[in-house]
Amino acid sequence: MKSIKIASDIIPLGEFKTGISACMKKVKATGQPLIITQNGRPAGVLLSPIEYDKLVYRQQFIESVAQGLAAAESGEVYSTEEARKILAEKRGS
Q1: 35 by DSSP, 3-state: which?
Q2: Per the confidence metrics, is the pTM higher than 0.85?
Q3: Which of 29, 34, 37, 78 would be 83's cystine partner, CB 3.0–4.6 Å?
Q4: Structure confidence at residue 7 (pLDDT)
């Protein structure tokens, strides 16, 4: 994700409401997230679908790696030969 530009990527909720279409076009065109504030505090973030998908994929990848590492640390792993044997049995070979 690209870094946030304070001057152009933060917008008050009222301004966002009146210019939703323009905000969405800007986010889509630039790939920059848009921080929406309410009473001067961050209230939401508008992302392009592509940036959202990247974040979700990255999070799923990190969780999968963590799960694999935890399994390895607890001894829930198979040797190459064990894995081949299990796969061969499942294929009916």
Answers
A1: strand
A2: no
A3: 78
A4: 63
